[in-house]
Amino acid sequence: MASPRTRNSVPSWIENPYPHVEHSIISFPAKHILLVTINRPEFRNCLPVEATIELGALWKWYDAEPELRCAVFTGAGDKAFCAGMDLKQRLDIIDTNDVAWEYPQGGFGGMTNRTGKKPIICAVNGHAHGGGFEIVLNADVTFASPNATFALPEVLRGVAALAGALPRAMHLFGNHRCMDLILTGRRLSIEEAVQWGLVKEVVSQDKLVARAVEYAIEIASNAPDSVIISRLAAREAWETGVSRATMRGQELWAEAMLKSKNASEGLTAYREKRDPNWFPSHL
């Protein structure tokens, strides 16, 4: 568990204080710009449930804050943007049969099924795996460092990426590329990510966040209402199909998957750093 973070000074043009956040650093690098940095580099910026709840509240605050126009989302360190869900915490919840806190409406990281009003730019400073990749798939624009990789390794852990990634990957990449990723759990290289249209620009680690902020400032210089309306109008074709598909996936499969022997085995093997021994499927 990350220790509480000291709140950065909030500029005078912010009307309302942002929600309490312990697992991320909040800053305002320029007028109208919000910068959110996941601050768990020692855990490859994986997110426990508490961090996702915080981010869900934060993104709602961002959408409601009048003078904020664009956000940049990144991770601390130079190894990972976000390695996804805190799998050890998830296994503990399964083992103890505790009630898991529900994710916010926006999904994992408050983003994987977020529609929202305002754009969020991802600055991917390393691996974006599992839920981290699910966040990127629903970002508006993505910049990445040369060491960035993208993966949905859930099939290697006995679970599935039901937070929005599967239908979004299908829409973005098409059937064959999507199936290649989700059925093998392999890593998508930065070169492929550019080729597939996922990453707008590859930027060195030392300049990545600055470049993403520069781009956010460009967006923020445009008419705020026009940006919001243009974004929502463009996403309408996506949201009417993807969001429903995400909800159906959760309704049909999530509970049975997490209660299966294979989920426990996959997560246990991950914690014990060994290969899993799978059981026959009874879904």
UniProtKB/TrEMBL annotation:
A GO cellular component annotation in the UniProt record: mitochondrion
Keyword Transferase: no
Entry-linked Pfam families: ECH_1 (PF00378)
Molecular function per GO: lyase activity
Keyword Lyase in record: yes
Domain of life: Eukaryota
GO biological process: fatty acid beta-oxidation
Alphabetized UniProt keyword annotations: Lyase, Virulence
PANTHER family in UniProt: ENOYL-COA HYDRATASE (AFU_ORTHOLOGUE AFUA_2G10650) (PTHR11941:SF158), ENOYL-COA HYDRATASE-RELATED (PTHR11941)
Entry protein name: Carnitinyl-CoA dehydratase
